[in-house]
Amino acid sequence: MQGGSGQSSMPFPSGSIDKTRVYDVKPLRSLDPVFPNSAQAPSSDGTCPSGFSPFFPFGAPQVPQASPPRVPMPTPIRAYRIPEPGEETPARASNGESTDNQKRAASNKSRSSQKKAKKSQDLQIDVSSLIGLSTSDREEGNRDVVNVVLMTFDGLRRRLSQLEDAKELTPGLVKRADMKAGNVLMSTGIRTNMKKRIGGVPGVEVGDIFYFRLELCVVGLHSQSMGGIDYTTIRGEYEDEAVALGIVSSGKYDDHTEDSNILIYSGQGGEKGDDQKLERGNLALDRSSRRKNEVRVIRGMKDPANPNSKVYLYDGLYKVQDTWIEKGKSGGGVFKYKFERIPGQASAFALWKSIEKWKAGVTSRTGLILPDISSGAEKFPVSLVNDVDGEKAPGYFTYLHSLRYSKSSIVPLAPDRCNCVKDCVPGDLNCSCIRRNEGDYPYTGNGILVSRKPLVHECGPLCQCFPTCKNRISQTGLKYHMEVFKTKDRGWGLRSLDPIRVGTFICEYAGEVVDRARDNDEYVFDTTRNFNPFKWNYEPKLLEEASTNDASEEYNIPSPLIISAKNVGNVARFMNHSCSPNVFWQPVVYEENNQSFVHIVFFALRHIPPLTELTYDYGIAGSAGSSAPKWRRKCLCGSSKCRGSFG
DNA sequence: GCATTATCATGCTG
DNA sequence: CCAGCATGATAATG
């Protein structure tokens, strides 16, 4: 049974698969990708707006219909933009081709997706205005929409996680805040890219990272919450056609190869030694292979910071170049698919592999000046790199990882400490530190900040709890391998060699506490500046049970705090400004030397892929009493929301 | 239209 | 560290 004969559209009649023979996949001409000369051809990145001339990812438009089929052929995939019922479909209509099937699929789709939402329809309308999502945003996303959906997901997830942590230990309780948050978002329509499409998903970029499978669902990158193969079925005139959309490779089945552009993926099914069947996802991958369709590839990676959790890396588009059958470990036949990466995409998985080698010292990297500019002051080395120009080092400073109070008029707060034994326990209102946090433990079990707050109260050295207590996150030092690097046009900058999960502690702003910043001092953190307000916490209206009276994100700092990192400081002094930053600051207070001081602590605003520059909002001085500094500068952050200047 | 099914998830226990 | 378990959500399938 050869698949390459080109005669049959079913190369594997069920039940008569010859597992010993390598599966020959000469391309079937009649199954080559067919994109009609219409405005609805999918573009490779999905950004082609309807009404504009289509982009043909395979070069010139192909005319495979030239060779007439002798057997009933499946209807070629016309377009993945399934029209809404009642929506005009000018290109197709003028071709005189039936769209009944697509319309049927579309109406099925919208019905089934709204089925669950029906009971909370009121909420859905309320919620979409709340979050600012339109119906078309749900259908097709963009960078901002994807970001809003992800922020909403994790805000709710963190809050639910916090509530779970505070509950009594009950044997039956399974902590799955991710599923609950995902379910709420799916059922209230806080999701995007519901329209299935081959190729890239608008708003998701190659190299983007995710920490839960449900995040992939809500942004429409991979709609299966567990399944590794995302596919759909096209209703054809004569028969239905399965098409693969994407895969998640968890690495469980030795899928990774030496060549970063190649991935060997195993089919699904065949659990207890049975042969896998050419159906569902397996069939879809086979079809996509013949059609040479693009398939999204998401690679499940070990999280370097947390061995228990996984990072999902979007590695862009691949094509299935070869498929065959192997004998699996349990004896049954297993489908194998050889994925080959489409050239010209941003480096993602390959970059991760390079970083692993740098960290292990296997390969030296270009531009490395110093392995550790902290000279051992930090737990992890802070490398110094310049692959842009000849500058050898930033100006001299002394490395210090916390605050120094010199000639400051800061009035320390009254000290307070808890008497907990071992670790402070979430939900324990006998703990005075938890009480000062309005009864909420500020961090989740794995140390992630739950909400921005007026002030976070951490345990201090004189608290009776163990130093391992989770309520000391900002005092535990760097968690990542950071790197100071020379940017193209903004001096030195800061980035991480490890992926950073939203809400994780990055570092505090170390330096000397001063009464007033000197005019020429560019290394200043000043809490009196005006900062762009932004929403990071969960939306209390989303879920009654997650609500609380105090969800304020306004900072409440007892007295103005100005820190200069010109002479002494840590990695934070290298972080540049951006008007759409990926890091934010949070005031944190704890006791030291019988006094309590406020610290400025940085947390990840969103997931940050490795080697992405870390930035925060420097704020703007001047409006409320304090005079504008002499060094206010033109902003080069490049964001679409850029305010033009900062400082 | 509704229930069933398959699935490279998670978190936790042993 | 890993195997195994319980609880699951999604969308295709029947």
Write structural notes for this entry.
The chain is an alpha/beta fold. It has a domain at 3-354: Roll (PUA domain-like). 17% of the residues lie in helices and 19% in strands. The chain contains ten helices and 25 strands. Helix 5 (143-166) crosses helix 6. The chain starts with 89 loop residues before the first helix and ends with a strand. Mean pLDDT is 79; it is low at 1-122. It binds a DNA duplex (14 and 14 nucleotides) through helix 2, helix 6, helix 7, strand 2 and strand 3. It comes from Senna tora. Residues 416-477 form the Pre-SET domain. Residues 66-75 have a biased composition (Pro residues).
Helix count equals 10
- Uncertain segments of ≥5 residues (pLDDT<50)? 1-122
Q: CATH class of the domain at 3-354, please?
A: Mainly Beta
At the third CATH level, what is the topology name of the domain at 3-354? PUA domain-like
The total of beta strands comes to 25
- Assigned CATH architecture of the domain at 3-354: Roll
The radius of gyration over CA amounts to: 28 Å
- The backbone outline, from C-alpha atoms, is globular
Structural class, from secondary structure content?
alpha/beta
Our measurement of the CA-to-CA distance between the termini, rounded to an integer number of angstroms, reads 71 Å
For the largest beta-sheet, the strand count, sense and barrel status come to:
7 strands, mixed
* Fourth CATH level, the homologous superfamily of the domain at 3-354: SRA-YDG
If you average the pLDDT, what whole number results?
79
Oligomeric state as shown: single chain
In terms of DSSP E residues, the strand content is 15-25%
